[in-house]
Predict the 3D structure of the following.
Amino acid sequence: MSDLIQIDAPRPRLPEWLRKGDTHFESVHLLKRELRQRQLHTVCESARCPNIHECFHRGAATFMILGNLCTRGCGFCSVPKGSPAKKEFVLDALEPAHVGDMARRMNLRYVVITSVNRDDLPDGGSQHWAETVRAVRKALPEAKIEVLTPDFCGDMDAVARVLDSGPDVFNHNMETIARLYKRVRPQADYRQSLDVLAFARKYRPDVLTKSGMMAGLGEDSTEVEELLRDLRGSGVHVATIGQYLQPSRRNLPVAEYVTPERFEAYRAYGMEIGFQMVFSGPFVRSSYMADLVNEQATAH
């Protein structure tokens, strides 16, 4: 199978199992207003997640720190890209405190934090990451905290800095299978991402390690199984697998809509090879229902 995905290829018709039902515009509007009052961003909004109405209605959101401009241009992602010369790239020193304040305001018992890539910063933004985790811990001492980090360009000191701040779950997404990396994550490296996860597992064995991928970008089942084996070989406890949905016409097209039956087969295979939890389904995203996923994983 070619690793090239044709941008002008006809888009497959959206199947019934990928049609979202309920909308909750009032919940979405109210939460967005409070986030903007604190100059905060969520990946739910910036990445155009299809679950935003459901999650905002249940009072859940994934905070996205280090601003709303990314230094990378991944083919699947709709988060705004920009040059580090822009004033928007200046770090907001109050952001960690604002995240803690908002998490307390939402009365979260499980807080998920992610970020854009900040390859322009010497530490990749890891100190800012650590300050944010500590601010959330101070605001909500009993809450569990999941960090969904970038690869920090393979800088393990940066990874350690985040882990030293005391998260309960360390998540770094592989996003896709090895063959498609140049197309899907051109500024990332498959082996480097596995190394980040393996380092996290060894550096903090008490922290649950997690990773996710998108299906429907042109991979086949054998390649997905290979990725799952690589994740287990790196000591990852939890895997998430969801359907890639093209967020805008500027992003990579969907190569295939994967059936619920195949998602179930991926889940079964992952559990068979030793994962504590595999959350696999059309609408699954890395931080979707993260609190419930954590509960099931830690119950094993």
The two ends are 38 Å apart (CA to CA). Residues 242 and 284 are 4 Å apart (CA to CA). The domain at 20-298 is CATH 3.20.20 (TIM Barrel).
